[in-house]
Amino acid sequence: xxxxxxxxxxxxxxxxxxxxxxxxxxxxxxxxxxxxxxxxxxxxxxxxxxxxxxxxxxxxxxxxxxxxxxxxxxxxxxxxxxxxxxxxxxxxxxxxxxxxxxxxxxxxxxxxxxxxxxxxxxxxxxxxxxxxxxxxxxxxxxxxxxxxxxxxxxxxxxxxxxxxxxxxxxxxxxxxxxxxxxxxxxxxxxxxxxxxxxxxxxxxxxxxxxxxxxxxxxxxxxxxxxxxxxxxxxxxxxxxxxxxxxxxxxxxxxxxxxxxxxxxxxxxxxxxxxxxxxxxxxxxxxxxxxxxxxxxxxxxxxxxxxxxxxxxxxxxxxxxxxxxxxxxxxxxxxxxxxxxxxxxxxxxxxxxxxxxxxxxxxxxxxxxxxxxxxxxxxxxxxxxxxxxxxxxxxxxxxxxxxxxxxxxxxxxxxxxxxxxxxxxxxxxxxxxxxxxxxxxxx
Length: 442
Prior knowledge:
Blueprint: H1 2-18, E1 26-37, E2 44-55, E3 60-71, E4 80-91, E5 99-112, E6 115-131, E7 134-143, E8 148-150, E9 153-155, E10 159-170, E11 324-325, E12 335-336, H2 349-361, E13 365-371, H3 379-398, E14 407-412, H4 425-431, E15 433-441
Parallel strand pairs: 13-14
Antiparallel strand pairs: 1-2, 1-10, 2-3, 3-4, 4-5, 5-6, 6-7, 7-10, 8-9, 11-15, 12-15, 13-15
């Protein structure tokens, strides 16, 4: 029987050395409790316990355990015993649970005073893990005894036991990427050194966008892998954090800053620019085309008479005939106004003074006025504003001694004929104006 026990011990530990293991494959248990005989003499004793366990599989451990019985001297029985066991522990729950109940049983070798022999134990217990490698355990079990000689008789005491103690798990765990999660449990075994990981060993992804935090430029906001985890609200391929034009319409080509391309640099992006090849520096309207103040088809930058309609063949100037004539000195620059104002600025009065002097020097000259606004405000409001601007200029002309009959036409246009784009402050400033057309009649 002793040889069988020794052989079982060797086979069990040989198998454990080659079996599948958990992260912490060894356990050291230290316990204390009580046991008592369940035969007729009823002795009760104090029992320290020590064991070393080895993980075999998700359901089984092997344990080399020693119980040491010390009876109190004032009891009938003064039995002292040492009882090592080779137990198998069957576990009911997996390693993810804190509370793990189990059954145990196995053969042992009992030294009871001067007697010794093979016995066995069996019972149930549970462990409660309060950290990753430490647990409180408690057991209740049965210990079978051997026949021993007592004064005047031979007895075979059987014992019941109850134990509480601590188990400490230890063992080297293979962790190739050194992220704190063993290779056996690591779903991302090649995580770069120093990267924070979750319980599966995978890099943290706080916003759940599939881009790990350590390479995510926007780790708290879901985004696109192609933009290093950052969102792109307008879908132009430039991350919102870098996009200086975050509301670009879909389909419009953009530059590196997410703004619509403007090939000719005129302030109107290519997607809506009807004149994409405008020369640099030329003032354009909302469609990106050069301003044509007099609407004669010749843009102002090529028009030698930009405020008076004329054929393209004559550089935008009227053709002189017997009834009318336009000379360079008859060209008066527009008068410009502040936003939502109709009073004449001091710097603009020189233009009106030039017109007044021209009209006073030439009795056969008359003038037509056209009033304009920028695009801010309603059409109805802007029409009235352009009319007030005309009236302001008329008042300035007539107060200088020119009769009102010399002003042949006044035409308020509101925002309908811009001289420049209304998308910029500079363009809107050019649209707040009153223009002049001086007419000479024979």
